[in-house]
Specification:
By secondary structure, the chain is an alpha+beta fold. The chain is built from 15 helices and 23 strands. The longest helix has 25 residues. This is Circularly permuted ATP-grasp type 2 domain-containing protein.
Length: 475
């Protein structure tokens, strides 16, 4: 049964299957629900067996969790995907141009399109990157653009993840699981593959290797904080799938002006590091002196042009939720075009009038920390108690610069499999984008995150959300 307040991606208001789902709905109607529930349990066993878990910080018990997986795919029509691809590529190119500008001439600030304080007061802006151009001119090698949908061809960008977007291993394993469980569906439907992502990632990173290295065979490494990191499974998975080295700080050192990896044959130079370590911990000589997760002197090697770091240090400013509110201007400034994908209307609480509006309408808004992620530190006004609203109001008054607010969107729904049959749940989508000099590659699909709790709008795995396989149909 559909809820007419929200756009149901599978069913029309009359209960008929929409065109992208027509073949799937026909197949589903002929299946035994008990068999499908059994397969759903089998999927969980599969994920647990291969170790696809994540860590939940701040909880003493059950720290390592399985992200729930739902067996009903999210299906996107070819024409819808073409619109998304065009808008995502435009946005990613604008972000890369923006990063190049703010670390060099800062023309966008001189033009008055962006206030200077958005940069100068931002902890994610790295003075160490001023005047620095990464190899190939690429700052954002891997981007995850979070999208939500509210209607037919109504897509909004929720946020840009230009620092270290995670979750791609779930996209790949979700597809592998669906292929194993429902091979007949992939013969009936033209579902575009996602399995080429690791090879594309390796190719993109290799194309960004420093020019003084052998680009035909660059040595690529994934730098992980270690096994206790929440995304360690993904780090090891991607290194294995790419045929890259998985390294921790202790495996690396600077030798003869290059970052080198310890091997049984001595130290060997690394050409490209796909780092999953935050800026602050990357180099104890340049950033946090207490860091044990980074490589002393790596920034000197980087500035000398002897290594590529992906994503480039300082890209985190593009994740900033206060900056997000200026993205339509940023896209237009660097591309000369109006943004294809819309932003969610955003109130910057640092501005007195906006702060007052947010305080007056707190029970209707979603409030987020400007540097927040994972669903932490946010308030969903319509679902909050009077006590929570009062406490969050006090936080806003104490530190308004730390927050932005947005309207509560009527997020689209996709059915999930429950014991009682199909039930609608809210979703978002994170497509994965790879950038190389002169080239942008968008994997046809991405990670669909689903709010498994009825009525919930929070899809983050750390807040009880799950994932789905995302099917982009071919023409």
């Amino acid at each position: 049964m559909t809820d007419n307040r929200f756009f149901d991606e599978m069913l029309t208001g009359a209960g008929d299957a929409r065109v992208p789902y027509s073949e799937y709905a026909k197949w589903f109607s002929g299946e035994d629900p008990k068999v499908l529930l059994k397969k759903s349990n089998e999927a969980e066993t599969f994920f647990r067996r291969i170790g696809i878990t994540f860590n939940v910080y701040g909880q003493k018990e059950a720290q390592e969790r399985l992200i729930p997986f739902d067996i009903v795919p999210r299906i996107i029509a070819a024409r819808e995907w073409r619109l998304l691809e065009k808008g995502i590529e435009q946005r990613v190119r604008a972000l890369n141009a923006f990063l190049a500008d703010i670390y060099h001439r800062q023309e966008i600030i001189k033009s008055g399109r962006l206030p200077e304080h958005i940069i100068s007061r931002n902890d994610a802006f790295l003075p160490q990157m001023v005047g620095m151009t990464p190899p190939g001119g690429v700052y954002t090698h891997i981007v995850g653009t979070d999208l939500v949908r509210t209607g037919e061809n109504e897509f909004y960008v929720l946020e840009d993840n230009a620092r270290t977007p995670s979750g791609v291993s779930y996209m790949l394993e979700n597809r592998e699981t669906m292929l194993q469980m429902f091979p007949e569906l992939f013969t009936k439907m033209k579902v575009r593959p996602v399995s080429g992502y690791p090879a594309e990632l390796r190719r993109s990173l290799s194309e960004c290797a420093p020019p003084n290295f052998d680009r035909a065979k660059p040595r690529v490494a994934v730098l992980t904080p270690g096994i206790h990191n929440s995304a360690y499974f993904e780090h090891s998975f991607l290194a294995d799938q790419m045929g890259a080295e998985l390294v921790e700080a202790g495996d690396l050192r600077v030798v003869d002006g290059k970052v080198q990896m310890r091997t049984t044959m001595g130290y060997k130079p690394i050409d490209v590091i796909y780092r999953r370590v935050d800026d602050d911990f990357l180099d104890p000589l340049s950033f946090n002196p207490d860091s044990m997760l980074g490589v002393p002197g790596i920034m000197d090697v980087y500035r000398a042009g002897n290594i590529t770091i992906a994503n480039a240090p300082g890209t985190g400013i593009a994740d900033d939720k206060a900056l997000y509110s200026y993205m339509p201007d940023i896209v237009e400034f660097y591309t000369g075009e109006k943004a294809i994908l819309k932003n969610v209307p955003t109130w910057r609480c640092s501005e007195p009038d906006s702060l007052q509006y947010v305080l007056d309408n707190l029970n209707e808004l979603v409030v987020k920390e400007v540097h927040g992620s994972g669903g932490y530190g946010m308030l969903v006004g319509p679902a909050a108690s009077k006590k929570e609203l009062a406490e969050f109001g006090a936080k806003l008054r104490a530190k308004p610069d730390n927050y932005v607010a947005q309207p509560t969107l009527a997020l689209s729904t996709v059915p999930i499999m429950t014991k009682k049959g199909l039930a609608p749940r809210h979703v978002d989508l994170r497509p994965y984008v790879l950038v190389a000099p002169g080239r942008v590659h968008i994997t046809p699909g991405g990670l669909t995150r689903v709010a498994l709790k009825e009525g919930s709008l929070v899809v983050n795995s750390s807040q009880g959300g799950g994932t789905k396989d995302t099917w982009v149909l071919g023409d």
